[in-house]
């Protein structure tokens, strides 16, 4: 998108909260690949989607520095003491999985500053091993991790997404590389292309590939 249009869109978008602005700034100062951060506009989109769904259980695959987890947490079902009506017995929780143990301290620090340490459960390790061990039914899943495993993550989580629940997958346009035949060594592009094709042909779901930022696949389970 034209840079001027992006700047215009940002001008007419609600600003980041103080904690998200801090994470954004410090991630760009300290991390080797800060572009992995969800960022302001995508973070706000994730927050609004979560607020529309009002999920009780969210799974995030790929925490990085915690920006997107905090955005998603703003839509969680509140605990019973704050609900204005009866019928819900528990507050919402996010399970988020990060493969890099060096980020654990940073993530936990930001979660505490956002007062979300009780709402966000952080898992450090291999998501392929961790996901089956979490005994939950998911209202919302956000996939933003290693691209060759997108198909595996999708197949692992879909059976445990409730009917009518959603899966969001980031980077599904992969800087436009999906338009070309992937090189043999380019496992990332091949992984994204295969994931997109799998979802498109999957009769268990309906899907929208949204050309926003680097592409966001929105998937709803029938």
3D structure, described in words:
This protein has 222 residues and is an alpha/beta fold. It has one domain: Vaccinia Virus protein VP39 (Rossmann fold, 3-Layer(aba) Sandwich). The protein is 36% helix and 20% strand. It has 8 helices and 7 strands; from the N terminus they run H-H-H-E-H-E-H-E-H-E-H-E-H-E-E. The chain has a 7-stranded mixed β-sheet, sandwiched between helices. Helix 5 links the parallel strand 2 and strand 3. Helix 3 runs parallel beside helix 4. The two termini are 33 Å apart. About 2% of the residues have low confidence.
Short description:
The protein is an alpha/beta fold and 222 residues long.
The tally of strands reads 7
Query: What's the CATH topology name?
Result: Rossmann fold
Structural class: alpha/beta
What's the overall geometry? globular
In total, the number of domains comes to 1
**Rounded average pLDDT:** 93
Query: Class in CATH?
Result: Alpha Beta
Distance between the termini: 33 Å
The low-pLDDT segments are 85-89
CATH superfamily (homologous) name = Vaccinia Virus protein VP39
Strands of the largest sheet, in order across it? 3-2-1-4-5-7-6
Helix content bin? 25-40%
Report the sheet-strand fraction. Answer: 15-25%
- Put simply, the count of helices is 8
- Rg calc: 17 Å
CATH architecture identity: 3-Layer(aba) Sandwich
Strand count, sense and barrel status of the largest sheet are:
7 strands, mixed
Give, in order, the helices and strands: HHHEHEHEHEHEHEE
